[in-house]
Amino acid sequence: MNLDFLKELGLAEDNDGTSTGQTSHHNSAEHIESYSPVDGKLIGKASVTTKEQYEDVITTAEAAFKHWRTVPAPQRGEIVRQYGEALRKHKDALGRLVSYEMGKSLQEGWGEVQEMIDICDFAVGLSRQLYGLTMHSERPMHRMYEQWHPLGIVGIISAFNFPVAVWSWNSMIALVCGDVTVWKPSEKAPMCGVACQNIWAQVAKDNDLPEGISSLVNGDYKIGEYMTTDKRIPLISATGSTRMGKIVAQTVGARLGKSLLELGGNNAIIITESADMDLVLTGALFGAVGTCGQRCTSTRRLIVHESRYAEVRDKMQKAYGQLRIGDPLDTNNHVGPLIDKDSVNTYLKAIESIKAEGGKTVVDGGVLEGEGYESGCYVKPCFFEVDKDSKMAQHETFAPILYIMPYSTLEEAIEIQNSVPQGLSSAIMTTNMRESELFLSTAGSDCGIANVNIGTSGAEIGGAFGGEKETGGGRESGSDSWKAYMRRQTNTINYSTTLPLAQGIKFDL
């Protein structure tokens, strides 16, 4: 396999032929070894941040913030614009790295980098739109308004499934808001983090920026603990499992810090009697098997009107038979590997549990073996009929496992969809306006994302991304999500020669 893209991204080869990612001067004797789920080969090693080095990073970031917050927001936007241009230059290489290190298809790898470029464009425009409000005062010759100030250091903890895009959602917005960032990438995809930091380092050098505006720390959960317990980091944005998110929320909340959480999803598509079947097949299939089922927005459940249940089941079964599973850098393939063998074991245990509770196999699963599958991480996307009360359908399994179940009334379908602990993404397939409006009403989907005639997966950067319940309640990316990275300040200015008190209170001396 041609790995020239590693060199382009500054991941230099050492004597044993592997690439060693180094970030600034923060290197230690301990390293994380990153093995590709595509072929099982060592991609490279990323230096693990020690406690002493972490302290150095935070001290440097604090100093950088004092400078960065004074730079006018449009000028901060110009730096982000240049980073977006650098991403355009390296889109192919970075997309290939994402695909090779994480295992998603190359189309999705390129798409993830495009998402980074898009959020840079969004942030550039935002840098001239950090609007406050003006209010009329009840006191004569007084003026009231509100403004927004940067928070300081924003800590970003990201997951392996989107190893670069989710960081950019947070970092590019935070940067134009005047914050500085410290990023802990997933230990399952550390080289992607190193590559992004290398690209940033060149932009910073070209603009004579101080070190510490964008910093990288690598390691396991211990590095995350340094961040979540650190009072110098007012905001922690964490993406991952609900279990992890509960720990982060409690830890950050205990010091009265702010947390922005993007956690698990258990997303459903309701397929009504009037649904367009072409839309159903494309939306449901990509949602279920894209990124090998390792998206927080992956489709886990199909809730199908009883009149069309057999049709949907049979057509989906046929579509599953046409999937091509293999090397994700080969654009002819639809599905790549799971991230590692631990995920494979979780997938296999889930299938056992589904069958044990009475789930009926439509398309069976299993691990693929033989030529091209030597890494042991390639599995078959699978599909099961279950009852609406299925315990397994209540849980998110980060793998390509899809459930199908019938319903009789739309109210019942919405109740089934909302019955799970998670509340990220949802969708309805219908050509009936009344059905779509009910789904979007206060009596409809309880998720942060609710779609009509598209699937659950593939959100655009212009809208706020996030969900409710055990998904964590956070919002990232578009709309007014920028407010999470700033502090609101209300200002009252008295330009009279007297000092009247609010609410008519008298305090005469």
TrEMBL record:
Single GO MF annotation: aldehyde dehydrogenase (NAD+) activity
Swiss-Prot/TrEMBL keywords: NAD, Oxidoreductase
EC class name: oxidoreductase
Location of the region described as Disordered in the Swiss-Prot/TrEMBL record: 13-34
SUPFAM superfamilies in UniProt: ALDH-like (SSF53720)
Superkingdom to which the source organism belongs: Bacteria
Pfam families, per database record: Aldedh (PF00171)
Aldehyde dehydrogenase domain mapped to chain residues: 28-490
Residue ranges, compositional bias (Polar residues): 17-26
Active-site residues (renumbered): E262
EC number(s) recorded for this UniProt protein: 1.2.1.3
Family, similarity comment: Belongs to the aldehyde dehydrogenase family.
Record's subunit section: Homotetramer.
Protein's UniProt name: aldehyde dehydrogenase (NAD(+))
Organism of derivation: Neolewinella aurantiaca
